[in-house]
Amino acid sequence: MSSDNQIAQEALTFADLGLSPKVLSAVTDAGYTVPTPIQLGAIPHALQGKDVLGIAQTGTGKTASFVLPMLTRLEKGRARARMPRTLILEPTRELAAQVEENFTRYGKNHKLNIALLIGGVSFDEQEKKLERGADVLIATPGRLLDHRERGKLLLNGVEILVIDEADRMLDMGFIPDIERICEMIPFTRQTLFFSATMPPEITKLTEKFLHAPVRVEVSKAASTGTNITQRLVKSGPKPWDKRETLRNLINAEADGLKNAIIFCNRKVEVAELFRSLVKYDFDAGALHGDMDQRARMQMLSNFRDGKLKLLVASDVAARGLDIPEVSHVFNYDVPIHAEDYVHRIGRTGRAGRLGKAFTIVTKSDTKYVDAIERLTGLKIEWHDGDLSTVVASESEDEAPRRGRGAGAPRRSGRKDDGERKPRGERRPRSAEPKPAEEKAQHQPELRSEPVIADNDERPARRDAIKAENAERKARPERADQPRGDRQERPRRDDRNARQRQEDNDGTVGFGDDMPAFMRVAGKV
Questions:
Q1: How many domains does the chain contain in total?
Q2: How many Å separate Cα 170 from the centre of its chain?
Q3: Cβ contacts of residue 252 below 8 Å, gap of 6+?
Q4: Which positions ≥6 away from 466 have C-beta within 8 Å?
Q5: Residue 34 CB partners (closer than 8 Å, separation 6+)
Q6: Are residues 128 and 16 in the same domain?
Q7: 212 and 235 share a domain?
Q8: Is pLDDT of 298 > 70?
Q9: With a threshold of 0.70, does the pTM exceed it?
Q10: DSSP per residue, 189-255
């Protein structure tokens, strides 16, 4: 592109793109006058009904690139029940809800029915919106197919199809669902396809479902914003090393840190890091895929409104979320997929603002860092020395319990003061009372039973002693009585039997006077 053409395009405004007066009025009320490069390249072709393949880094205004021309084209016509006129597919609930907000903001001068089909919301409410007729249907692939299989949705009236964040669709395994949905929509539709990266699988998808698309690429695929300061930060390998490194970073950036998103690779790490930050009195919240939809939207709303300073999140917050004034992004974990790095740090430095992105790196993360640098074509600088200078630190209250060694916490239930006794003062094993011996000390002592050999020459005496021993075992004696005065200690059953005998009035059953009905002969 020549410098003259570039200057000419930069001088264009939204009024020069062919949008309707209603749309222009809403855009002006929102405070926008100059379109971004992706909007400048995509909107005119979309208004002409052409297929568009838009490739741009995150945070460049891709959403308005399809929302504004769709609003202009939807001014003519009317939706029918269960037959939406347009369909927008989004990979996550948050992105779908955000697109709905854009249609509400820029379509305030239109009387359009907008239906949002996402998980975590009642089917009945969504079906009522479909029955009224939807001019704009915004959906995640799974929930859309659910309504289709229930017979509540027909897609043969769709005029415009938008596939947003296509590379994220690929990562989440939605491509088979996208192919099924595309086959349900008329061949004559217009398709608008947007993505930040173009892996080979996405390229094949565009070749299959787009017809002579206009390619609008305003920046190198998988590039990062030049207004974002990127740094790598060394850390020891242990979780408490990384948590301490993160806390030090947050404190060091306190003067310029307005708010920040902290990304983790796994949901369990999101929860653990959130608890750790709260423990150290940081103003933090958590966001991950296992939270219900209401909690997720409330958490995002609190962060967007400034009620939370730090948001610990999984990659569910890495794509397309429009929070324009995020000053910092911290990668607590290096993303396994290099493309995710582009999306994560794209949450800061939006709308031309400056931003900072710090990535905490351990020795096991070097291969992922190399992949990121190959993808972006950028050598990322180290913040304060590389991994060769790392020294593992151990926080006293976060160190694992070992049971031995200096500084290890005392085991739970240990009766001493935690110090090891000198070897000479230890109690010998033989002196330690065993459980059986301790029990025996609290029981009355019984008479020892003589051992009678089988070949004893006095069998009569042997039999008498055995009988006496057997009787003594069956009737234990009290140890506190003299030997000659010992009496049998009655057991509970014996006491009950004795009480029944005392209560007996002398009656001895029926005897010979047994009633006739008890003399019925048994069956032979």
A1: 2
A2: 19
A3: none
A4: 452
A5: 10, 12, 13, 14
A6: yes
A7: no
A8: yes
A9: no
A10: -EEEEEES---HHHHHHHHHH-SSPEEEE-S-TT---TTEEEEEEE--SSHHHHHHHHHHHHHHTTT
